[in-house]
Amino acid sequence: MHIPSLALIVPLFLVTSSYARFVMYADEWHPTRPTNPRDREGIDHIVLAFAPSNATASFQPKVPISTIKEEFPNAKVMIAIGGWGDDQFYKAVASETSITTFANDIETMLQNTGADGVDIDWEYPGGNGIDYKEHPNSEKTGEITAFPKMLAAIRSAIGKNKLLSIAVPGKEIDMIAYSAETGPEIWPSVDYINIMAYDLINRRDTKTGHHTSVSGSEKVVKNYLSIGAPAEKINLGFAYYAKYFTTADYCTASPLGCALVPAEDPVTGKDALTSGAWTFEKAHMEPVDPSNLTVSTDGTCGPETMTTCASGCCSQYGHCGFSDEHCHGACQHAFGTGCTDPDVFGSWQKAMKNGVYDEEEGGEYFFDADEMLFWTWDTLETISRKFEDIVRAYGLGGVMAWSLGEDSYDWSHIKRMAEELGKGGEESCPSGSSSSMSTPTPTPTPTPTPTPGSSHQCECVAEGYYQEDWCYDKSTGEYYCRVYYDWT
Ligand SMILES: *[C@@H]1O[C@H](CO)[C@@H](O)[C@H](O)[C@H]1NC(C)=O
Ligand SMILES: *[C@@H]1O[C@H](CO)[C@@H](O)[C@H](O)[C@H]1NC(C)=O
């Protein structure tokens, strides 16, 4: 649709909907938060992660909720229970009594902390969790029917005025408790469904591939829609990290679908540390100037302290030592000696420079033949494409990201998502200029075309303030939909 009179004020990014949610996990391992309000604009839900499922009632977040509310005055603050490492949910659903106790404990936690709601991050009801080798899925079939009962009990304990969301698996194989049969028992209890449309290649896979491509994410969303998940409850998940995998073969000729070395122990399921997640934090993103390093005197090392180990390896977490944990698994080559694994940090610098865009799947990747590492991640461009191809195309209720602190290098992924939501970011009006902030952001929408005289028709004015309304441009005789974000 051609709208010449508005072309000049159409922003680079088209608005999804003024009301689409922007849900942000804030995890305890990456505690950095934006200090500039511009970098956190648009985030309307903060989910603090994690409270343990076996000690919920007494949980207190490391950062008080009152602090979070000062920084995010327009956000609901929720607490997530569980996470990948939590293998204790089976206790919560062991009996009707334990379900009731767990639900009441959550209510107690909300009362004690002042949180606005709870997110259940059980990975996963029915199995395939971190303990899947010790406790096979066959031991967990009861969880499939217990899970919806647990959600209903939580809803009844916390009431309608508190939020209840669930974090749900991206991989189809992990959707053990999510089916056409269980879905109708699940959706009515929850406000939001946070789809973890990432880690779609994980350490149980045997071949390289995109971990969070556009087409992969779309398929995940379709899986949930096909079992009746309401689009308006779905938040599409984004990952603020790249993933790397050690390959078994030289993958230069065909980097996608290339064999991986086994990334976990086939007997115990333990992480072989040949793969991992690489967050978008300063320490990971900025190249190191070796001339600025000094020798560590306290056993810590790495880009944060700009110190090297006097002897031994600098572990992924910035500690000097000689054990396998120090020298293997994203050992920091530039800050010590003796790493026995590939130089993940150095490889990522190459990946960022030489990343390849897979137009068809919608994913960025890089194969580093020197280190035998395959990289897969979301760029700002693939983020925008997900809004276009998935969030807007399927009318989803919002988006979610893991996690706030993992984007702390420049907050660029957060800002891009805020832009796409029409809630701020790089292209938003400068803070404090209230006149331009209230300028409506028009969005041309080709379908459906309203008929003159319908209730959606409005007279178009250059600087009108219609919200999600149809406008008629007299000069061209065309209709378009305009949307603007209510900043008040
Ligand atoms: C909760 O479970 C963890 C293991 O995931 C265990 O280490 C901890 O002791 C448990 N806490 C309680 C209160 O049972
Ligand atoms: C290295 O140190 C020099 C001199 O102190 C400084 O100008 C430069 O910014 C430093 N480089 C980095 C990458 O920190």
From TrEMBL:
Residues 1-20 form the signal peptide. InterPro entries: Chitinase_II/V-like_cat, Endochitinase-like_sf, GH, Glyco_hydro18_cat, Glycosyl_Hydrlase_18. One of its GO terms (molecular function) is endochitinase activity. The keyword Transit peptide does not apply. Residues 422-454 are annotated as: Disordered. It comes from the Eukaryota. Residues 441-451 have a biased composition (Pro residues). One of its GO terms (biological process) is chitin catabolic process. Keywords: Chitin-binding, Hydrolase, Signal. Residues 430-440 have a biased composition (Low complexity). Its EC number is 3.2.1.14. Pfam families: Glyco_hydro_18 (PF00704). Residues 20-424 form the GH18 domain. GO terms for cellular component: extracellular region. It is an enzyme of class 3 (hydrolase). PANTHER family: CHITINASE. This is chitinase. It comes from Clohesyomyces aquaticus.
